[in-house]
Amino acid sequence: MVWREWAEDNNVKPGTKQIFGRNLLSVIPQLTLTRPREGETRIRTYTGITLRPANGASD
Predict the structure, then answer these.
(1) Which DSSP state fits 48?
(2) pLDDT band at 59 (very low <50, low <70, confident <90, very high)
(3) CB-CB neighbours of 48 under 10 Å
(4) In contact, 14 and 4? CB cutoff 8 Å
(5) What's residue 30's pLDDT?
(6) 22-39: per-residue pLDDT in tens?
(7) DSSP state at residue 16
(8) CA separation for the pair 49, 10 (Å, rounded)
(9) DSSP 11
């Protein structure tokens, strides 16, 4: 996961997915959390945010 890689690169303890989601929603309140179905499972998705390419990465 990108957030875990970022945390490791910055010597930050990544925490759990639940804590990450809680913190993300607290700093960007306009995000929308959805859980669309993919077969039998539901995937947590945040609408209103995108990831930038890593430094030096080409599009």
Answers:
(1) S
(2) low
(3) 10
(4) yes
(5) 92
(6) 888 899 989 998 988 888
(7) -
(8) 21
(9) T
Average pLDDT, rounded, for the chain: 83
Q: What is the pLDDT of residue 58?
A: 58
> Pick from 16, 19, 49: which is nearest to 34 by CA?
49
Name the E strands within 1-59. Answer: 32-34, 37-38, 41-42, 45-47
Token pair for 21: 């989601």
Yes or no: say if 32 and 46 are a contact pair by the CB < 8 Å rule: yes
C-alpha distances in angstroms, 57 versus 2, 4, 8, 53, 54? 14, 18, 19, 6, 5
Q: In 14-35, which positions are buried (b, 16+ CB within 10 angstroms) versus exposed (e)?
A: eeeeeeeeeeeeeeeeeeeeee
Tokens 């030096």 found at? 56
